[in-house]
């Protein structure tokens, strides 16, 4: 992997790690499910108008949109809105990797190697430690919601594998067409039109302007720039070389939340974070016969 591509991979991890700060800012103004609906609606409109269809079966696009888009971000935004620390959210969401391995074994009959099971066990142990720590602060529910977000992401990954899109970026952008309607409907039921309207009519306030900045970052930087660079890297390099760079995302997320939001993880959480990242790395990679690392 050329040095330029390694720097780009690190840049993407930084952009995605800072994405959690942008989400935090967005949730300061908008109700969580409504924020998720807006996030995808802003991408969906230009996608329909200007991005070519990714040439996949509609059911796979729907599966990806409902899993990766609707489920993941509805659970994640509600979790962060109800008390999930921003940095820990970036870490716990990495559970999608071992979840994907297990779901792939169950639904796609993919082989799970012993070292992958060991990695999953490590990640689970770290998650249990974090959940135990959070339960002591009456924050177990946000932890569970974040894990459900990771599980939804994993189900979306299965649809991606079945779809086998010829252009992954187009597939990702068209996925954004799926979540707005179900998320707007869910927001109407859970949050009500009054909360939606209030968040829109107070955009001129400092909190509203900050939220708009956060939403802009999530859409343009986190999704368009980040996903575009990542897709390019995956095309130019072996997947097993590129994928481990995603483990820098929670490192950036935890560091940024410490610096900018004043979040102070306990030593137990720091140790558990190291265990989770190691487990995700071990559980997400498969050793080929010639000892080359490739993704599952």
Automatic annotation (TrEMBL):
Protein name as annotated: Membrane protein
Spans traversing the lipid bilayer: 7-27, 33-54, 61-80, 86-108, 115-133, 139-159, 171-189, 209-230, 242-261, 267-288
SUPFAM superfamilies: Multidrug resistance efflux transporter EmrE (SSF103481)
Membrane-topology descriptor: Multi-pass membrane protein
Cellular location(s): Membrane
Keyword Transport recorded: no
Domain EamA: 7-130, 143-282
Pfam families: EamA
Family statement: Belongs to the EamA transporter family.
Keyword entries, A-Z: Membrane, Transmembrane, Transmembrane helix
């Amino acid at each position: 992997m050329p040095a330029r591509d390694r720097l780009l991979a690190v840049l993407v991890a930084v952009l995605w790690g800072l994405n959690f700060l942008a989400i935090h800012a967005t949730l300061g103004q908008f109700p969580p499910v409504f924020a998720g609906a807006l996030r995808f609606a802003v991408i969906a409109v230009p996608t329909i108008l200007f991005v070519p269809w990714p040439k996949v079966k509609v059911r796979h696009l729907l599966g990806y949109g409902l899993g990766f888009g609707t489920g993941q971000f509805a659970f994640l935004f509600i979790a962060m809105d109800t008390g999930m620390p921003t940095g820990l959210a970036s870490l716990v969401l990495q559970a999608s990797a071992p979840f994907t391995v297990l779901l792939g074994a169950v639904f796609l009959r993919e082989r799970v190697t012993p070292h992958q099971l060991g990695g999953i066990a490590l990640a689970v142990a770290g998650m249990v430690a974090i959940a135990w720590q959070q339960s002591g602060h009456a924050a177990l529910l946000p932890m569970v919601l974040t894990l459900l977000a990771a599980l939804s992401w994993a189900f979306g990954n299965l649809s991606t594998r079945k779809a086998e899109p010829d252009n992954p970026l187009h597939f990702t952008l068209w996925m954004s067409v799926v979540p707005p309607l179900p998320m707007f409907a869910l927001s109407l039921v859970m949050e009500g039109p009054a909360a939606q309207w209030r968040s829109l009519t107070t955009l001129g306030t400092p909190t509203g302007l900050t939220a708009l900045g956060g939403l802009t970052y999530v859409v343009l930087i986190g999704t368009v720039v980040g996903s575009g660079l990542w897709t390019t890297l995956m095309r130019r390099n072996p997947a097993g070389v590129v994928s481990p760079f995603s483990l820098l995302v929670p490192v950036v997320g935890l560091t940024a939340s410490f610096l900018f939001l004043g979040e102070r993880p306990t030593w137990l959480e720091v140790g558990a974070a190291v265990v989770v990242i190691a487990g995700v790395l071990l559980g997400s990679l498969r050793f080929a016969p010639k000892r080359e690392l490739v993704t599952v």
